[in-house]
Amino acid sequence: MKRLLLAAALISTAARADEAAPSAEPETADVKKTEVTAAKPALFENWISLDEWASREKLKEGTFSAEVLLGYEYVNDQTFPSKTANALLTRTRLQYETANYAGFDGKIMGQYVGPINDHFGPRDGAYDTVADPEAFRLHEAYLAYTGYDTHARIGAQEIILDNARFIGNVGWRFNAQSFNAGLLKNDSIDNLTLLYAYTDSINATDGNINHTRQYHLFNGEYKLDDRTRASAFAYLQRNDAGADIDTFGARLWGSIDTLTHQTMIAFQRDAYYAYLSGALDIEGIGFEIGGEYLSGGTDSRDQFRTLNGTAHAFNGWADQFLNSAAGLPSGLMDIWFKGSVSPTERMDLIGVYHYFRTAFDASGYDGTYGNEIDAMLKYNVCKNFSALAGAAYYLKYGSDAANVRDDKTVFWLRGTFTF
Description:
The protein is mainly β.
């Protein structure tokens, strides 16, 4: 409770802080206000003083919101000789967004992830792991400017590029991921969006700040037609504990009537990656088939790494292949079939089947890793409350000791209140 009060106090204090005063023009500057045109707004002429800003109570024009997430997670991982985890968790988020003024706006979001019990690792090493440790942090806190076909942002922020496979917010975990970064996006050229961001550090899902991964992020997205888009990207790591892992790739996605498609390829040193999927929607019933390939090898240069993206949404909800971020010696081939249906406007049902196989014999095992079945039910109870129940069951193929991933069962219950 003390930490919740501290979170609220910090955010309240930040929300009431005065905005920085605009830089004054030098006394010797010869700037004629009559020369300012509509294309170049007279920012300094229109800006009000801090006293006027406070007297008009401009903070009241912003929006305040809150979210409380309650969750239960059951984990039984036969890979490790530990007890079954039964974790009860909460996450509280308080958020304030300012109104836009002369193109400027800002956002601050504080969050606290707290356990209700201790029956999970790493909180108690005797239990299987639930990757939602206790933590308090400012998840997002940034200043932004929008104007001249450009959006600029600096501070702690979520960054999601393309389909979030390489750079994303890992939104499934309670301690979602954000970046301490500066970002610049421009739409001056018709149908083309160019983005550059420099990330100095990462607010990671383990609750800590990772200073070893710093990126130059380049992404260009082009609208080919009303239904098809393509992008090219380069994610350059400035520092990663001595490892040099630059990622270059391209993505094509779009729709043809009720069919949606997505293709992506990427390269790192001597490693490579491929993704292909197609989905069909027939009167609210969805079908999808897809495949993903991550190269492996005895040399780490041959092992493709997924950087700081969202793995949970791609290689099975049991998270047996999360260490793709560090490289998989035997690589991975993942083929999946997905079905979804919405019986009512408030309810969604999702089911996924995965077949996992090695891509390279680098660790004494070459063949099928295993199979996985995932299922989830989502229900919007009312405007301010939604709930979900989900399960994942990974079944190891065969009994070869070199196939180190054993059976794993995971079950979730979550409820989210928004205010």
